[in-house]
Amino acid sequence: MADKPIQGEKKVFMTGNEVVAWAALAAGAEIMYGYPITPQNEIMHYWTRLAPKYGRKFLQTEDEISAGFTTVGGVLAGRKAFTATAGPGNTLMQEAMSMAEMMRIPTVLVVTQRGGPSTATVIYSQQEVTMTCYGGNGEGLRIVYSTASHQELFDYTIKAFNTAWKYRFPTFILGDGYQSKMRESLTIYDPEAKGIELIPAEAYVGKSGIPGIDRDPAHLRNTYNLEDELYEVVKGHVAAYQRVAPEIVEYKEYDTDDAEIIVVAHGVVSRAAQGAIKVLRQEGIKAGHFRPVTLRPFPVEQLRKKADKVQKLLIVESAEGQLKRLVTDALYGITTPIETLLKPGEGVTVEEIVEKVRKLD
Amino acid sequence: MGAGINPQMPRSWRTDTKPHKFCPGCGHGLVLKALGQAIDELDIQGKVVFGCDIGCSLLAWDFFNVDTVQTHHGRTTPVLVGIKRANPELIGIAYMGDGGGYAIGSQHLVNAAARNDKVTVILVNNTNYGMTGGQMAPTTLPGQKTETTPYGRDVEEAGYPTKGPEMVAAIAHEGAYVARGSIANLRQLKKFIKRALENQIAGNGFSFVEALSACPTNWRTNAAETWAFVEDQMGKYFPIGEFKVPGEKKEG
Ligand SMILES: Cc1ncc(C[n+]2csc(CCOP(=O)(O)OP(=O)(O)O)c2C)c(N)n1
Ligand code: SF4
């Protein structure tokens, strides 16, 4: 049995789902629990082909509720466990992710967004932003990376396991159907050969020794009898989240230094925004682009600093204002006018953004 | 509590969380006693992971000196399946009520049984939803009054009671162990639970024990009526015994 799925570095041309399977292997994921839904299916297909060669495991569950909870179980047993889903599956999985939030369980969930609400389309969308960031009953104490390319799918899937285990909050890769299905070139690598240290997993239950004799038993619960008890627990989690958020937050900027108008977009839509900025700059329009990479925690301070200095913000997304809600919340009190280009369930082109910005001017 | 005078608590019980939080006369305490004794006799305290559901079973979250995880309503089976798949060395016990196992979590029970997952599920059948205040459960008997069947369960309207072990035995595979015991015969219940655990330890397959139990609070019964209900009414509808035993010998 080969011990390292990837030796050194390798240039490849792959679909996004294949990239995720390789990244999870490289990150040391030990078991995947999954339930079929398009467009994430091939993550399971590649995983089930690759995993046995590296001593990793898989369980196909009866539904996403079970996939979410078996993933929670795998993590409690001290394994790097993960799952993947989309759309209505994401809806079902929020129940388990809410338990992960309550118990600080480092689950990793790859979401390949598809159209919504409900079953909608199987293809593409950015409509799972709200659910992924704030789904489940609770305060949304999660980490959500929104990827824009296959290279990022690889990089951030590896990172997600580290982030999850370091901070112990449920961690999400928010991809989409385009990323799942299209082929792109990227470099896959063994993270350790690159100096990326893989944070080890640790068991919550089943540690050595007899509970009550050699050690205290692990008594984990998500139900509390008293309001005050719950208040203390949630306040503690919120404080921990706020403390680590500055270390976790990631964002990218393109030509924002002298920008008069800033396009805010995430995920693959960011690529259209980058293209549009180039065209607009050639026309002499001072446009820039701000891209939150983490949607939770959101780069609030970083965006505020920019937004305060520009004349206008344009929010572009393949959803009807889910990113916008994060932005307006972050910019509360700032008076810069906000325009939108909202296309729920549809992709956004460079031309559309260019056109929209021209009209704003 | 004077040892030797009062019956001893199982060794695997956590004494500083006793007395427990169940209502007086509740069957949960008895089922957990049988489970505690089985854990003691098999000497597996260091390997057990105990999972409890929402419902009165959640009151057992700190009941034992064993690692415990209390999860969502109906999801105890998949959490334990996830643990067991990730670490087959552990002995996973999923403990739940009839609502948790036969209503909200039924697909998990059915599929864990069909997959022959090597976990042990112990399901407490008290013919109602205890914690939420005595509504109808999948196991409520025909004619039985509950908060949501105030005139008695009408099977035309509300369907028939779920016969869990019968169902599980029908879909389970070679290697599975399936039984129904009762708090009215604790020795036998303990034996069934023990066999269910041994079956998991041997790596044979899925193990399932339903325990007929009492909920005097919601039934609004006194001691004599409670006991009569468990033994006569429930016992008549839900036969006691072993439904599936790997290899040979059945009892009941
Ligand atoms: C998803 C969800 N739905 C409903 C509830 C409310 N609820 C709490 S306990 C319970 C019933 C428990 O009954 P049972 O499983 O039979 O266990 P018992 O309390 O009788 O031991 C319900 C419906 C919940 N906690 N979660
Ligand atoms: S409500 Fe019923 S099942 Fe729940 S603790 Fe009380 S007697 Fe037991």
Automatic annotation (TrEMBL), chain A:
Taxonomy, superkingdom: Bacteria
Q: Which Gene3D superfamilies match?
A: 3.40.50.920, 3.40.50.970
- Which Pfam families has this protein been placed in? PFOR_II, POR_N
Oxidoreductase among the record's keywords? yes
Citing just one GO molecular function, the answer is:
oxidoreductase activity
For this UniProt record, the keywords arranged alphabetically read as follows: Oxidoreductase
Q: Which residues are in the Pyruvate flavodoxin/ferredoxin oxidoreductase pyrimidine binding domain?
A: 23-251
Keyword Oxidoreductase among record annotations: yes
The Pyruvate:ferredoxin oxidoreductase core domain is annotated at 259-344
Protein name according to UniProt = 2-oxoglutarate ferredoxin oxidoreductase subunit alpha
Q: Which lineage is the organism of this entry classified under, starting from the top rank? A: Bacteria, Bacillati, Bacillota, Clostridia, Neomoorellales
Automatic annotation (TrEMBL), chain B:
Cross-referenced InterPro entries: 2-oxoacid:Fd_oxidoreductase (IPR051457), THDP-binding (IPR029061), TPP_enzyme_TPP-bd (IPR011766)
Residues making up the signal peptide according to the UniProt record: none
Q: Pfam families from the xrefs? A: TPP_enzyme_C
The record's listing under Gene3D superfamilies reads: 3.40.50.970
Q: Name one GO molecular function term.
A: thiamine pyrophosphate binding
A single Gene Ontology biological process assigned to it is: cellular respiration
| Keyword terms | Oxidoreductase
Q: What is this protein called?
A: Thiamine pyrophosphate domain-containing TPP-binding protein
Q: Look up and give the organism this protein is from.
A: Calderihabitans maritimus
